[in-house]
Here is the input.
Amino acid sequence: MQFLSLDQWLDDEHRVRIVWQYVESLDLSELYQQIRAVEGHVGRNPVDPQILFALWLFATLEGISSGRKLEELTTRDIAYMWICGGVSVNYHLLSDFRVNHGDLLERLMVDSIGVLLHEKLVTLKTVAQDGMRVRANAGTSSFRRKSTLDASLKQATEHLEQLKKQQKDDPGGENRRQQAAQERAATERKQRLERAKKELQKLKEQRAKKKRDAEQTRASTTDPDARRMKMGDGGFRPALNVQFATDGKSRLIVGVEVICSGSDAGQMSLMHQQLQEDYDVTPDEYLVDGQFATISEVTELERRGTHVHAPLPRQQKQLDAGEDPYVRKRRDTDEMAAFRQRMKTTAAKQLYQQRPSIAEYPNADCRNRGLSQFRVRGRVKAKAQTLWHALAFNLHRMLNLGYLEAVMER
Here is the structure.
C-alpha cells in the first residue's frame, strides 16, 4: 500500500523537475501533429511526446543510453516514474523516438543558442571545433570485400523471397507475427548489404585517388557508415567521427555533425558555414587543432572574415630541420601566409591556449555520460543520439551559468 503520491516521493529540489520545466517550454508541436489518434478519429491513445522527450533528456543526463534500461527505470525509479505519471512505455517506442527526430533536436539546440545570442549571453566571437571518434555499433569482423558482399546480398535476397512466399502461402497462420518480424529483419539486412556495396564503391574511388590498392577495401555489413579508425588507445576499431563546435564564452555546444571519415581535414569550413547559416553570425576567431588547418580550409575561413588559430602544418618537422615555419611557403595563398605570420605572435599563441578548455570540455563531458559507443547504426541515427548528448550538456551548462531562465522564458 502506497500512502504518498509520486510527487510527494520526489524531492522538491530534484533536477528532474527542472528537466520537465525545460521540456514544457520547448515547441514540440511538430511531434503532436504526427499523432493520428485525435478527437473524432479512432486509434490507440499515444504517449505524450513531452513524456518521451523528458525521459530521454533526463536519461542522457544520467548516462543512460539503453532503451531497455530506460524502460526498466520507468517501473522502479521514482524520478522516471514521476515523468511517466502512470503512463507505461516500452523500449521499442523509446528506441524509435530517440532516433526519429534528429532534425527537431538540432532545431531546438539552434533555437536555444539563438535566444542566448540575442540576450548577448552567447557571442560566437570565438568558436572552437574538435572531433572525437566514437565506437560504432559494428564488429571488426563485419568488414567484407566486394566478392563476399555480392554473395551475402544474393543469399539475403533469396532468403527474403522465401519468407515472402511462406507468408503468401499461409497468410493466416498462427505465427504470422513471428513471420512478419523475420521478414522485417531480412529486409533490413538486405538494405544494409546494398548500402554496404555503395559505401564500398565510394571507398574504392577514394583509395584510387590516393593511389592505394582499392581491391583491399572493405565495408561493414552491420553499419555501412562505420570506418576503421585509430582510437585514443592506439587501436583500430569501427567508429564514427563526432564534430562539436563550442562557443568560447559560454562553452555551450553550438554545432554538431557526425561524419564517416576518421580525419578532421575538410570539416572546418563545413561547420563554419553551418554556423553562419544557423545564427547569421561570422565568428571572429576559430580555434582548431592541426588536422583541420589545411591550406584550402584556412584560406576559405580567412576569406569569410574569420581568423584561424591552429598549429602550423608540419611545424615541428620544420623546426627540427632548422627551417622557419612562419615564413611563406611555395604553395601558400595570401591568406595562408597571413595565418602563418599571425601564429607567430604572442597574442595568437595565448588565444590558442584556450582551445582545450573550450573544445575538449564538451567532448569529455559527453563521454562521461555514455557517448563512448553508439547504441544505434547509421550516421543519421548516430547524429540523433549525439544531439541528445548535446542538448543534455547544454541544459546542464545553462543551469550552472544561470542562463536557463532566459531560454525558458523566450
Summary: The first strand starts at residue 126 and ends at 135. The radius of gyration is 25 Å.
